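Hi there. Long-time user, first ticket. I'm pasting a complex I've been working with (about 585 residues overall). I'd like to know whether the download I got is complete or cut off, because the file seemed smaller than I expected. Thanks.
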Amino acid sequence: MAVVSTGKVVGSWRAAWLRVEGHWTWYRRYWKSNLYSSGLQPLLFLAAMGIGFGSQVEPGPATGGLSYLHYVAPALLVAGAVQNAIGEASFPVLSGFKWQKDFFAVTATPVTAGQLLGGQLIWVALRLLIASVVYALVAGLFGAWLGFGVFAAVLVAIATGIACAVPMMAIAATTYDEGTRFTSIFRFLVMPMILFAGTFFPIAQIPAGLRWLAWISPLWHGNELARGSALGGLGFPQALGHLAYLAALFAVGWVLARHYFYKRLVV
Amino acid sequence: MQIVGDDANGVDDVMVEAKALVKRFGQFEAVRGVDVHVRRGEAFGFLGPNGAGKSSTMRMIAAVSPRSDGELRVLGMDPDRDGPRIRARLGVVPQQDNLDTELTARQNLHVYGRYFGLSRAQVRARADELLDFAQLAERADDEVEPLSGGMKRRLTIARSLVNDPELLLLDEPTTGLDPQARHLLWDRLFRLKTTGVTLIITTHYMDEAEQLCDRLVVMDDGKIVAEGSPAELIARYSTREVLELRFPPGEQGAVIPTVEDLGERVEVLPDRLLIYTGAGESALEQTHTRGVRPLSSLVRRSTLEDVFLRLTGRTLVE
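Hi, the file is complete. Here it is re-exported in full:
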């Protein structure tokens, strides 16, 4: 008697969501250690920089007359998200291709390489949501927020993180060694970006000749948007410009990541 | 292209049909014009050494590797166009386990089953059955990482069955396992076959091919060099028995003229002479009568290893 398979093809969004479900199964086992690294680290920064260091900073024109805690809290939210997102898009993605090879297991099912990529991104977005909400709640206890603008700031943080995660996934999909380039990227791109792209001080302080480095960094656009959301004072055209930059980064990243996911998984 | 099956069900009973199938990676041609026809319920094997093109062929059949040339139909569909629909009905056991080692055995099955559109209730029920089938029920809720190689392999096979596949693709299913684990696996695969699942197996172990395959093709250098059942292949390309004479390295050559006429054919291996004959024992007596004194001797049945040696002049596992 012939066997009849129970398997069927699911729609693209559903397929991506099933990947998220798989990650969630894993997260339920390991959430504590993860939340610690992804949620607590920005809070330590907030305590040290916003409250400790910030106590020595006079409110001035650069902080819009607000305390340094208010100034730095939205940017640390975005910086934390960017750091998390890039981290999640590097070694864990390379592992899917190289060590654990579970990407090959997933694409042996009806789920396609593109749907897998979509699932990875939605998963990163969810992780960022969890970490950002935890950060926002605790920062709120410190009195870091002026009002409901924090909700928009959380969305900005997730959007900025995802815009950075996609190109990083493209890079991970083209990495065949042990991922030494990730360490260089963290050191020479991510860390300087967090330090200099308007997280801790306005980029007006950067010498004019170098300021373009901040302008091209996605974090600066995210920081401007998050500050605008939390503190106000950002014009609509500027906001639109920052969003457009992040959207463009996402679009280019998506095309590249999708291409390289297929190239590596469908050969 | 008209495909005609063996019975009234016709097209539906051809699981895989490949004609002049080619796979190129840049300049390198891994599969060089392969014809394959696999019917429902068969256990079909690709036997060949590493690098023969078996895995590349398997990946094309699994609809995860586009063909470079030729025709290919899997379950009556074109893998280039209907990849997801084909994969929905396949089970795949890759050469290397790619389980989620940080999840439990049961969670691996749950998560994987969902990719095939199964409901939560379905995957729960199916996981219980499969954990029993794979004899992993006791370790069901343990993390995968510390499980033994054989257990991981069985879990990979269990996972491949989560969607009740009509066609199960096994790429080197027992490579790297100890003999006991291999036999346990073969037993499970044999059970599957009796339930009507079509199996396609690649292997470079002739004993595995003999154990599991109704029909197989011998592949070498990207091409099929012979096709048939294990018994047919042995009958066609080898003798009933083989007399093996072992000598100290380098000394076997001197004996060849003395024993050449004792069989249909003599193969010279680095440490042995293989004399292909219908009657091994009497050939052995003759060698003694003629004063040949090997270190040791053995009379055995011909195997697929001998078929491969005959066809390619090389041994399967080097």
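A couple of notes from our side: Chain A touches chain B at residues 1-10, 15, 18-19, 21-22, 25-26, 29-30, 100-102, 104-112, 265-267 (CB under 8 Å). The radius of gyration of chain A is 20 Å.
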